[in-house]
Design goal:
The chain is of the alpha+beta class. It has one domain: Nucleoside Triphosphate Pyrophosphohydrolase (Alpha-Beta Complex), CATH 3.90.79. Helix content is about 20%, strand content about 35%. The chain contains two helices and seven strands; from the N terminus they run βββαββββα. The protein has helices at about 55-65, 125-140; strands at about 10-20, 25-30, 40, 70-75, 80, 85-95, 110. Strands 1, 2, 3, 4, 5, 6 and 7 form a seven-stranded mixed β-sheet that branches. β1 (about 10-20) and β2 (about 25-30) form a beta hairpin. The structure holds 8-OXO-guanosine-5'-triphosphate. 8-OXO-guanosine-5'-triphosphate (8GT) binds near residues 14, 45, 46, 87 and 125. Its EC number is 3.6.1.55. Its cofactor is Mg(2+). Pfam families: NUDIX.
Length: about 140
């Protein structure tokens, strides 16, 4: 009898924030010292045990940008196979309480018009997020 070994892949949920302010969207450039160095992303990070997606996002944005957010709208999840693990990006459209951002992890941030988002060098998974966000705006 043939035995088939099925290895279970690690699945990681990563809520991320599409932060809107005055018609612009915040993009963050990953640190040169992290995985996917200098790629652009929507700020956020991995969900910890017993955390909801929303709780994780609020915590991560406070840790990374030192600001509070309001979560307005969940966008479709998108997944990316990174070989040894699968990343599930869970994007949320958000507003900021203040724009007094203090960066603790990112190299830099940029505020871009929605149509300019595709001009940056994003992590692969974010290309779907951008597409879904632009679609959401077009039917709003
Ligand atoms: N926050 C965030 N992470 C993203 C995006 N796109 C994407 O592929 N990721 C991946 O999701 C993971 C999020 O991890 P993290 O932000 O909590 O921490 P990290 O970079 O230290 O993680 P890692 O070292 O495990 O890769 C990273 O591997 C990151 O590359 C995105 O738009 N936002």
């Amino acid at each position: 009898m043939l035995e088939v070994l099925v290895s279970k892949k690690l699945v990681v949920r990563v809520p991320c924030a599409v932060i809107e302010h005055n018609g612009k969207i915040l993009a963050g450039q990953r640190s040169a010292a992290l995985s996917f160095p200098l790629k652009w992303e929507f700020p956020g990070g991995k969900v910890e045990q017993n955390e909801s997606d929303e709780e994780a996002l609020v915590r991560e944005i406070m840790e990374e940008l030192n600001v509070e957010i309001d979560i307005l709208q969940r966008l479709p999840e998108t997944s990316k196979d990174q070989g040894w693990r699968e990343i599930i990006l869970v994007p949320f459209i958000c507003n900021l309480h203040t724009t007094n951002i203090i960066l603790t992890e990112h190299e830099q941030i940029r505020w871009l018009s929605p149509e300019d988002l595709p001009t940056l060098d994003w992590t692969e998974a974010d290309l779907n997020v951008i597409q879904n966000y632009l679609e959401f705006l077009s039917v709003k």
